[in-house]
Design goal:
- The chain has 280 residues and is α/β, with parallel strands linked by helices.
- A seven-stranded mixed sheet has the order 6-2-1-7-8-10-9. A three-stranded antiparallel sheet has the order 3-5-4.
- Helix 1 packs across helix 3 and helix 2 crosses helix 3.
- Bound molecules: S-adenosylmethionine (SAM).
- S-adenosylmethionine binds next to strand 2.
Length: 280
């Protein structure tokens, strides 16, 4: 049996926070020290290390090798289909027409940044295709990116456990999924159409795409875990890829009001979105 590891000190926490915030944006406040400790212990064990400082030094030396298991350990991937649908429901009628005409005419392009296992981009796909009324031929493309390669693999497979479907009625489950077993529901092919899932990092602009690429970006329940400097970098990176007049949607407990001149807060139905300004 391996000897027990030491506990994560405040000094260790500060070192990991500096590294995680720089690389991924993520910040663990002091009251989450034990959570981080519990998530890192299996990584120390897997690397036959006893001390957190040794794991930190290993990351400094060879982050690439630990990247996948580390991001799996430190990210919160909680998500489900049809989460906060009020933001999807406003995307119809005049607003949708304006979005279709304001960028590359007759075409819509969206990004789900921090898409986890795909529930968000696929839900958006279902809502937007219905609103566009063109079904499979809708001129729509949605990109989903995330740090966590295991979640991305699940997103690509499109097979979900019942917990991901908890907001859906039995009729919706039957309409959108094939039930392979009580624990495996496969999203039907037409609802995956036009969704592309790739590894990406909100802090690495080159993984977000070319300038002015998107009519809308959804980054919900992600920035809440970011350090303040990383949040500012994320806003700048989104401002680069959202076209002028395009929209940024955040989670309902997240806000960038007062943090940037690049986006203007706007009420859309019962939710707030941020519109990319022309000049700032
Ligand atoms: C709580 S989930 C939110 C999923 C979905 N957006 C939703 O609202 O249901 C947060 C996701 O953000 C991802 N994430 C965290 N930091 C990221 C970064 N720097 N770049 C890309 N994804 C990131 C995590 O891996 C995780 O899957």
């Amino acid at each position: 049996m391996l000897p027990p590891t030491d506990s994560l000190s405040l000094e260790d926490l500060a070192l990991f926070n500096e590294l995680f915030a720089n690389k991924f944006g993520l910040h663990f406040p002091e009251h989450k020290r034990e959570i981080l400790e519990a998530r890192l212990v299996p990584r120390l064990r897997a690397n036959h290390l006893k001390r957190f400082i040794d794991y930190y030094l290993l990351l400094q030396y060879d982050l690439k090798r630990e990247l996948d298991p580390l991001t799996q350990a430190i990210t919160n991937n909680e998500t489900y289909f049809f989460r906060e649908t009020n933001q999807f429901e406003v995307l119809e009628g005049e607003l949708l027409d304006d979005l279709m005409e304001g960028g590359v005419k007759g075409r819509l392009r969206a990004l789900s940044a921090g898409c986890s296992s795909g529930e968000e981009p696929y839900s958006l796909n279902i809502f937007l295709r219905r609103a566009l009324g063109a079904g499979e031929s809708a001129p729509l493309r949605i990109d989903g990116i995330d740090l966590d390669s295991t979640r991305l693999e699940q997103a690509k497979q499109g097979i979900y456990r019942p917990s991901s479907l908890r907001s859906l009625s039995p009729e919706q489950i039957e309409r959108y999924f094939i039930e392979h077993s009580p624990t495996a529901f496969e999203l039907k092919e037409p609802h995956r159409l036009g969704v592309d899932i790739q590894r990406g990092n909100i802090l690495e602009p080159e993984t977000l795409g070319t300038p002015q690429r998107y009519d809308m970006v959804f980054c919900r329940n992600v920035l809440i875990y970011f350090s303040e400097p990383a949040l500012k970098s994320a806003i700048d990176n989104f401002a680069r890829v959202v076209r002028t007049g395009g929209l940024l949607f955040l989670g309902h407990s997240e806000s960038i009001i007062g943090l940037t001149p690049l986006f203007q807060a706007e009420r859309l139905g019962t939710s707030i979105a941020y519109r990319r300004r022309a000049h700032a």
